Amino acid sequence: MVSIGTMVWLASELMFFGGLFAMYFTLRSTSPELWAENTAILNVNLALVNTIILVLSSVTAQFGVFAAERLQPRRTGGIFAFKRWGMVEWFILTFIMGAVFVAVQSYEYAVLFSEGVTVGAHAYGSAFYITTGFHAIHVTGGLIAFLFIIGRAFLAKRFGHHEATSAIVVSYYWHFVDVVWIVLFAIVYFLK
């Protein structure tokens, strides 16, 4: 039931992001010169590295799910014995990578702000910050969920199917956020 409810909720989130994409394309179609001028400021290489970090965090999250499905909350070997890592170690690594993603995006915002690209400056600033900002809020929500799941793993007297299901559901959300970013990245940084 939890998985199905999560899928339905993610479908509503997909519609939300669909609305944001529609806003972006509508504003872009009315101001093509503004878009050309401001997209030239974007640091595509930094955004590409940040995208790779987020995609890899989805991989580490999935390794955490595999450990949760084995009902293995924590590692059973040395810190560098990755094959013996449990859900907690994989989710901590995922959390770190997600936090790096948000930090790099914040840095990009600061650079753009110094260039005069702000929410109130023009339609491009509004569209850029609203679409990427809502995504950043969703990533932050995922980071909080990972902390919650990691904490539950430490507090559980016995790591069972209930805890594993929670980990799986959080991974659904994380993969969703990852896919949305890939589409958003392609639209904002590459679509001409």
UniProtKB/TrEMBL annotation:
Domain Heme-copper oxidase subunit III family profile: start-end pairs: 1-192
Broad enzyme group: translocase
Membrane topology field: Multi-pass membrane protein
Catalytic activity of the protein: 4 Fe(II)-[cytochrome c] + O2 + 8 H(+)(in) = 4 Fe(III)-[cytochrome c] + 2 H2O + 4 H(+)(out)
Transmembrane segments: 7-27, 47-68, 88-107, 127-151, 172-191
Keywords: Cell membrane, Membrane, Translocase, Transmembrane, Transmembrane helix
MF GO annotations: cytochrome-c oxidase activity
GO biological process entries: aerobic electron transport chain
Enzyme Commission no: 7.1.1.9
Keyword Transmembrane listed: yes
One Pfam family, short name: COX3
Subcellular location: Cell membrane
Assigned protein family: Belongs to the cytochrome c oxidase subunit 3 family.
PANTHER family noted in UniProt: CYTOCHROME BO(3) UBIQUINOL OXIDASE SUBUNIT 3, CYTOCHROME C OXIDASE SUBUNIT III
Protein name according to UniProt: cytochrome-c oxidase
